[in-house]
Design brief:
Layout (H helix, E strand, L loop, with lengths): L3 E12 L2 E13 L4 E5 L6 H8 L7 E6 L2 E2 L5 H9 L1 E5 L10 H11 L4 H14 L15 H13 L5 E5 L7 H18 L2 E6 L2 H7 L2 E6 L2 E7 H6 L4 H8 L7 H4 L11 E6 L5 H12 L3 E11 L2 E10 L6 H10 L3 E4 L7
Parallel strand pairs: 3-8, 3-9, 6-7, 7-8
Antiparallel strand pairs: 1-2, 1-4, 4-5, 9-10, 11-13, 11-14, 12-13
Helix pairs in contact: 3-4, 3-5, 4-5, 5-6
The structure holds adenosine-5'-triphosphate (ATP).
């Protein structure tokens, strides 16, 4: 069992400039086998939270339970054992530059006391899993960023972890390499049932692989739930802002308009899971109400493998048909919600 329960977690750092409350009463549950995203802007407390999950950082209040066992009650030896069951990967890979790819993956196996032959055999299997068996003799400096992260993933898997913590693991990679690393993580989750926690500031990463997400701001969880629900109905300003800044989608070039062109008039955000049905509904609505509607942005996004369409519509200033048009859309399966001023620049 690798369920992670976080209860009222607090972390306060003391410094010469005063106190910093990096985590304020954070509570969440990460289910066994989930791919769980923790998203927020810089300074939100994400790294502190993930470091508290394996007690690399000791919380100042609250509890962390893994598989029902509170980490705070473990002896140092038990804690070391528990940490072996938690792999970690980082933005800057943290590889040993003087060692070959194979030796990098062998490293945690040597620490566990494995013999050289056994460790090399296991490391070779893991390199095959991440698609790098042919680069086993290379040094990290000879690899691309994506390949380095694959080595780091193989190394993290060497101790057969139940949990993999990924701290901004794709932030240093280009979008295409990011997608291939996310695919690899998804595959690992599916094949081995490893619970994966993804720390990121990019909504695109969350929607590509995560099942659940917690949105953090100022050391607190602003919103938490299934990715598709939060994408469709973001409740907090922090979630709306992250969704708004999530660019990338194949329809955008066709419809995309620079945001400077956004004028007055009420705006709504429409979400639908089959984007092909957008156009007839909107076109028929314009015909039915005989009123112009401005498409400010249209986009498709891949949320956990399902294509979701998103559109920002602007109604004519002073229109009296807005509520009727929202009802028209909702009767045709389009989820519509008002876009508040605080999410537009
Ligand atoms: N060791 C430390 N000593 C003092 N303050 C710290 C320490 N570590 C983190 N903080 C502070 O705690 C807050 C949360 O930092 P944290 O690194 O967890 O945020 P984050 O969401 O991961 O942001 P980033 O993506 O920029 O790392 C910040 O105000 C940070 O300055």
């Amino acid at each position: 069992m690798s369920e992670i329960m976080i209860e009222n977690l607090c972390k306060t750092f003391g410094s010469k400039d005063g106190r910093v409350d990096a985590l304020k009463e954070v509570s969440l549950t990460i289910g066994d086998g989930d791919i769980y995203g923790i998203i927020g802007m810089s300074g939100a407390g994400k790294s502190t939270l993930v470091r508290c999950m394996n007690f690399l950082e000791r919380p100042t209040g609250g509890r962390v339970l893994i598989g029902g066992r509170p980490l705070g009650s473990l002896s140092e030896r038990e804690l070391r054992r528990q940490r072996e069951r938690i792999g970690m990967i980082f933005q800057h890979f943290n590889l040993l530059m003087q060692k070959t790819v194979l030796e990098n993956v062998c490293f945690p196996l040597y620490i566990q006391g494995k013999r050289k032959k056994e460790a090399r055999k296991r490391a070779a299997e893991l390199l095959e899993l991440v698609g790098l068996e042919e680069r086993r003799k290379a040094y990290p400096s000879q690899l691309s960023g994506g390949q380095k992260q694959r080595v780091a993933i193989a190394r993290a898997l060497a101790s057969d972890p139940e949990i993999l913590l990924c701290d901004e693991a794709t932030s240093a990679l280009d979008p295409q390499t990011t997608s291939s690393i996310l695919e690899l993580l998804k595959d690992i989750n599916k094949r081995f049932g490893i619970t994966i926690v993804v720390i990121t500031h990019q909504m695109a990463v969350v929607r590509e692989i995560c099942t659940h997400v917690a949105v953090m701001k100022g050391g607190q969880v602003e919103e938490e739930g299934k990715v598709e629900d939060i994408f469709a109905h973001p409740r907090s300003a922090a979630a709306r802002e992250l969704i708004r800044s999530d660019r990338g989608g194949d329809m955008q070039e066709r419809y995309g308009r620079p945001e400077e062109e956004i004028r007055s008039g009420r705006r709504i955000r429409v979400v639908f899971s089959e984007n092909s049905a957008f156009e007839p509904v909107i076109a028929n609505m314009i015909l039915a109400f005989r009123e112009p509607v401005n498409i400010l942005r249209a986009d498709t996004k891949n949320i956990g493998g399902v294509a979701k369409g998103e559109m920002i519509l602007e109604f004519a200033p002073g229109s009296i048909n807005i509520e009727a048009m929202k009802t028209y859309m909702s009767h045709r399966g389009l989820e519509a919600e008002e876009v508040k001023e605080d999410v537009e620049q």
